[in-house]
């Protein structure tokens, strides 16, 4: 029996009120007709709870655009799951946040894609979205909802990264996630020029690693497992957090965790299961098989878990077992998720 993932990300809807250039979910203005019904969503949640999942992340689209979302979240809480919501923050007000707390939601991640309104709004596709998101931050703070910032690293925000981190700290965020922009289909169509080159990526990761030495909150970098290497090479351990707690955070210092035991997996609005939102390779669908069966029987996951099967420079790299590169970036660049990660500065 294969150990389950630490967390599951469930995108409850494709519907969203913004038009972000990079959207990994390829969200839309309306819900998809094939989204899991509330009955199917609750059945999935029951399977996750019985499986022993520690953390369920509700994502989208924008989860708050689904009318029955809080009912789904409440069911997850009743089943004993720790729940986090990924949101653009624009629909958060004090009343909504209080309802989320009553539904058992324990934390929200709010997308802040710049330290200035101009930078954020241009990327998010709506003038005024920065102010609305920051109003959402204020609502969380006033209602007592723990929150973290989710921020996309791209060429237009390279000079703003220190200010973005400071913004998270100053506003009381408990963590800062800097997402390395990966060329999923929408990025290829709408903003491929914003993807960092290898030199830029290395410089950013080195800066973030050094910032973590004395930063009062955790810095995580989904999409760039090479961040792990910088932390290890420089012997950087955040002094504000016990090592035991850090080891419980997926992908903090263990490289790519997509599909890995004690790692993570993603369920899309229609029930399709993929290793990660950045690695959009279908493993199965929860309408046809249980998520446990998909996890244990997928040939794709079997390959991902065998790092000896990595190809190219990633397969030869001395850091293969502690990094493995971003499998999503490898797939989008070569069509083979086991190939070299072209974004790595060691290539």
Automatic annotation (TrEMBL):
<dbReference type="GO" id="GO:0046872">
    <property type="term" value="F:metal ion binding"/>
</dbReference>
<dbReference type="InterPro" id="IPR017200">
    <property type="entry name" value="PqqE-like"/>
</dbReference>
<dbReference type="GO" id="GO:0051539">
    <property type="term" value="F:4 iron, 4 sulfur cluster binding"/>
</dbReference>
<dbReference type="InterPro" id="IPR058240">
    <property type="entry name" value="rSAM_sf"/>
</dbReference>
<dbReference type="InterPro" id="IPR006638">
    <property type="entry name" value="Elp3/MiaA/NifB-like_rSAM"/>
</dbReference>
<keyword id="KW-0004">4Fe-4S</keyword>
<protein>
    <recommendedName>
        <fullName>Radical SAM core domain-containing protein</fullName>
    </recommendedName>
</protein>
<dbReference type="InterPro" id="IPR013785">
    <property type="entry name" value="Aldolase_TIM"/>
</dbReference>
<dbReference type="InterPro" id="IPR007197">
    <property type="entry name" value="rSAM"/>
</dbReference>
<dbReference type="InterPro" id="IPR023885">
    <property type="entry name" value="4Fe4S-binding_SPASM_dom"/>
</dbReference>
<dbReference type="Pfam" id="PF04055">
    <property type="entry name" value="Radical_SAM"/>
</dbReference>
<dbReference type="InterPro" id="IPR034391">
    <property type="entry name" value="AdoMet-like_SPASM_containing"/>
</dbReference>
<keyword id="KW-0949">S-adenosyl-L-methionine</keyword>
<keyword id="KW-0479">Metal-binding</keyword>
<dbReference type="Pfam" id="PF13186">
    <property type="entry name" value="SPASM"/>
</dbReference>
<keyword id="KW-0411">Iron-sulfur</keyword>
<dbReference type="GO" id="GO:0003824">
    <property type="term" value="F:catalytic activity"/>
</dbReference>
<keyword id="KW-0408">Iron</keyword>
<feature type="domain" description="Radical SAM core">
    <location>
        <begin position="1"/>
        <end position="225"/>
    </location>
</feature>
<dbReference type="InterPro" id="IPR050377">
    <property type="entry name" value="Radical_SAM_PqqE_MftC-like"/>
</dbReference>
């Amino acid at each position: 029996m294969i150990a389950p993932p630490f967390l599951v990300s469930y995108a409850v809807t494709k519907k969203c009120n913004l038009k972000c250039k990079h959207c990994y979910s390829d969200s839309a203005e309306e819900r998809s007709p094939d989204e899991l019904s509330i009955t199917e969503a609750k059945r999935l949640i029951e399977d996750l709870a019985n499986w022993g999942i520690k953390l369920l992340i509700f994502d989208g689209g924008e989860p708050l655009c689904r009318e029955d979302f809080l009912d789904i979240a409440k069911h997850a809480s009743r089943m004993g799951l720790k729940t986090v919501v990924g949101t653009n923050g624009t629909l958060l007000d004090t009343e909504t946040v209080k309802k989320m707390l009553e539904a058992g939601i324990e934390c929200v991640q709010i997308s802040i894609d710049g330290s200035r309104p101009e930078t954020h709004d241009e990327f998010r596709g709506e003038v005024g979205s920065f102010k609305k998101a920051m109003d959402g931050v204020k609502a969380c703070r006033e209602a007592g909802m723990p929150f973290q910032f989710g921020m996309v690293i791209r060429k237009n925000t390279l000079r703003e990264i220190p200010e973005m981190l400071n913004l998270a700290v100053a506003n009381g965020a408990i963590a800062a996630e800097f997402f390395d922009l990966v060329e999923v289909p929408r990025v290829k169509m709408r903003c491929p020029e914003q993807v960092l080159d290898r030199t830029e990526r290395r410089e950013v990761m080195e800066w973030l690693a050094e910032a973590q030495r004395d930063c009062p909150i955790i810095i995580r970098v989904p999409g760039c497992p090479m961040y792990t290497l910088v932390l290890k090479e420089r012997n950087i351990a955040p002094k504000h957090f016990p090592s035991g707690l850090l080891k419980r955070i997926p992908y903090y210092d263990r490289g790519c965790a997509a599909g890995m035991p004690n790692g993570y997996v993603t369920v899309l609005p229609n029930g399709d299961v993929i290793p990660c939102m950045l690695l959009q390779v279908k493993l199965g669908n929860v309408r046809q098989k249980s998520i446990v069966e998909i996890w244990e029987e997928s040939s794709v996951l079997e390959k991902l878990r065998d790092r000896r099967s990595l190809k190219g420079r990633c397969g030869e790299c001395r850091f293969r077992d502690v990094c493995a590169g971003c499998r999503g970036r490898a797939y989008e660049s070569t069509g083979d998720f086991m190939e070299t990660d072209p974004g790595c500065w060691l290539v």
